[in-house]
Amino acid sequence: MPSTFYLEVVTPERVFFGGDAQMVIVPTTDGSLGVMAEHEAMVTAISIGELKIKVNDEWKVAAIANGFMEIMPHYVIILADSVEWPEEIDIKRAQAAKERAEERLRQHQSRIEHLRTQAAIRRALTRLRVTKEIK
Question: Lowest-confidence range among 8-17, 80-89, 119-128?
Fold first, then answer.
């Protein structure tokens, strides 16, 4: 049996995942970060992107948006604003959110509004990518 660690992924609404994992890959502000058992202890910020969890030699993929991850040698805890499995994503709603954000980008916006709009597009694109609606 491959070496595992306990992984818990929590959102404000629920415990999204709790169990043993072989590896987890998260999007961070500095790029993707992969974690396996016995990883050096650290804390990192999570950005918008794909969360990948390897369990029993199979990868599970979800959309994740913003949070933090605490890594210890035998456990990892992820606290995120939102995490969704592909089957939980409303594809039409994600497509509509993408289109609304793209339209807002074409308008004159303040710097903060522009950054919020870019984040909305990243969230929508990630949700669509996880559902395999776009590549």
Answer: 119-128
What is this structure's pTM?
A: 0.86
Q: What does the domain layout of the chain look like in residue ranges? A: 5-86, 90-130
> With bands split at pLDDT 50, 70 and 90, how would you rate the model's confidence at 106?
confident
Fold designation for 90-130:
1.20.5
Topology (CATH level 3) of domain 5-86: ATP Synthase; domain 1 (2.60.15)
Residue 118: which of 135, 130, 102, 131 has the closest Cα?
Answer: 102
